[in-house]
Amino acid sequence: MKKRTLTLAAIAASLSLLAGTASAYDGDWKRARVYYRSVCTACHEAQAGGSIAPSKMTKAEWAAYIKADKHAKGKDTLKQYLSKSYRASIKAQNKAADKFADVPDEELLEDLKAFAARGAKDGDSPASCN
Ligand code: HEC
Predict the structure, then answer these.
(1) CA distance 107 to 110
(2) For a tag site, which of 24, 79, 83, 118 has the least CB within 10 Å?
(3) How many other C-beta atoms are found inside a 10 Å radius of the C-beta of residue 14?
């Protein structure tokens, strides 16, 4: 009996490991494109002297930039602008923030990574802001 319980426990453990692998999240670049254009670009046009195209940086530069998480010359973080709390704070005036209000922060970050890699200067589909 004891042995059987152990076997079952082992099976359950490996199943949950498998499930963990299967649910690993793949960034949704389309969602990030909408978010980038509506949230990031809207503010850049208003406060950063103009839009900042994803194609301004290479894939490697984007990856390093996102990893460093220092936005606006280090004044704040990039993650802050992907967070649920930021989305909640602007959703009354911003449709994309409202639409994606409940997306987990980590997912939106993965989405942005996917979009930046795709839209980078040397990506599959270099992207402007519009
Ligand atoms: C509330 C306003 C605001 C939002 C929202 C915003 N940014 Fe910015 N961003 C700025 C400002 C201001 C600068 C700095 C301009 C400068 O000092 O040259 C900047 C600069 C940048 C730069 C240039 C490098 C740097 O950090 O100085 C990148 C890349 C960038 N933002 C990406 C993003 C992305 C991606 C998002 C959306 C997830 C985003 N920003 C959201 C205001 C914003």
Answers:
(1) 5
(2) 24
(3) 10
Contacts for 95 with CB less than 8 Å, ≥ 6 apart: 38
CA 106 distance to own-chain centroid: 6
Do residues 115 and 33 touch, judged by C-beta distance below 8 A?
yes
For the record, the structure tokens of 113 come out as 């990574």
41 or 5, greater pLDDT = 41
How far apart are the CA of 95 and the centre of ligand 1, in A?
A: 19
At CA 59, angle to CA 56 and CA 82, rounded to 5? 80
Instruction: Label residue 3 by pLDDT band (50, 70, 90).
Output: low
- The per-residue pLDDT for range 34-77, each reduced to its tens digit, is 999 999 999 999 999 999 999 999 999 999 999 999 999 999 99
At 7, list the tokens: 């076997």
CA of 49, closest atom in ligand 1: 15
- Which atom of ligand 1 lies at the shortest distance from residue 86's CA? 5
Q: Of 23, 27, 24, nearest to 109 (Cα)? A: 27
CA 44 to chain centre: 18
